[in-house]
Amino acid sequence: MIKVGIVGGTGYTGVELIRLLSRHPQAQVTMLTSRSEAGRRVDDMFPSLRGVTDLTFSDLDEKKLAACDVVFFATPHGVAMKHARFLTENGTKVIDLAADFRLQSLQDFEAWYKLEHACPDILKDAVYGLPEVNRDAIAKAKVIGNPGCYPTTAILGLKPLIDAQNSQQQALIEPWIIIDAKSGVSGAGRQAKMNLLFSETSDSFSAYGVAGHRHAPEITQGIDQILGQSKRFQPHDIRFVPHLVPMIRGMFTTIHVRLTAAGQALDLQSLYETSYQNEYFVDVMPKGMYPDTRSVRGSNYLRIAVQTLENSPMATILVVQDNLVKGAAGQAVQNMNVMFGLAEQTGLALVAVVP
Ligand SMILES: NC(=O)C1=CN([C@@H]2O[C@H](COP(=O)(O)OP(=O)(O)OC[C@H]3O[C@@H](n4cnc5c(N)ncnc54)[C@H](OP(=O)(O)O)[C@@H]3O)[C@@H](O)[C@H]2O)C=CC1
Ligand SMILES: CC(=O)N[C@@H](CCC(=O)OP(=O)(O)O)C(=O)O
User: Semialdehyde dehydrogenase NAD-binding domain spans which residues (predicted)?
Assistant: First the structure.
């Protein structure tokens, strides 16, 4: 059994980790921290977990956490980096659901997150935890930066096209990409904020981060990583605009690209199907079928559809995921499975909840 610690057990991704790990045959949550609820039974706070766990929230004690094989940080940005050194020196792996270990560029991290990094040396060796892109490196990693929810949809939505540019050694899309994304309100976490009130978010639809969002550099980094050395195909201009929609869970990302002549000659449907045929958690929808967020709710699947138009160079890629599962806790468990040499779907083969 893999002994698991969770820091930040009272938040949305923390409780989602407990839900997923409670049915994992080879992992057991042994410690769950909260500053505000230390001493309280977990199932007292979350009745959904009655009969699932008899754990009590505890204070964050590094020494006790170091007795775990892996610790998930389901905390705000800037928490995991303060504990990563002690834990890794004691042989405990770290999976951070926040952004402390996502951006390889220290400068980008400090500029976008307004935090000084506590361990740039550990950041250098940390691995971006997107298994469909980075599986081999994740298997050897001690510290994982679990991707942001929006970047997961954007990077996996574009990967087949970018890979094809690399293998064909020619540009298939023009050097700009538009990423128009919508998230359910749980994406903002379980915090009391005016703009997250029911009467502010329900029956309304708004854009935010229009002048710039911290996931833009993460998306660019992800695309660059897939591009590898073939920098001449780098899509320099990425326009990412997130929106908040009146639903609790779910994320819908619509990506627009303009195909070059070589790109227009491709059969994108078959490119996407072939590209993801061996990926357990990525479902390419049949031609003419489009995904909706309920088709992934509560599951670790990401569903994609790709649409080209007659007499037009434009192509549209539609991507959905549950922001709390493939966009956060599910992806984190998928990473744990890779790090511990387990089948990737262990404990994660969940069917979406409909309606
Ligand atoms: N929600 C989502 O869809 C996604 C979230 N993420 C990221 O995952 C992380 C967690 O998100 P989410 O669960 O939504 O957040 P929440 O705000 O719902 O929960 C945060 C948790 O962290 C704990 N916490 C807060 N401050 C500290 C601190 N300084 N030290 C230790 N613990 C602390 C809180 O508990 P307490 O105050 O009791 O200690 C709480 O349990 C964030 O970094 C978020 O950006 C990533 C992808 C998607
Ligand atoms: C709806 C909403 O507010 N979503 C969050 C993104 C959640 C997430 O993945 O982001 P981080 O882990 O990078 O914070 C936001 O835009 O700030």
Answer: 3-141
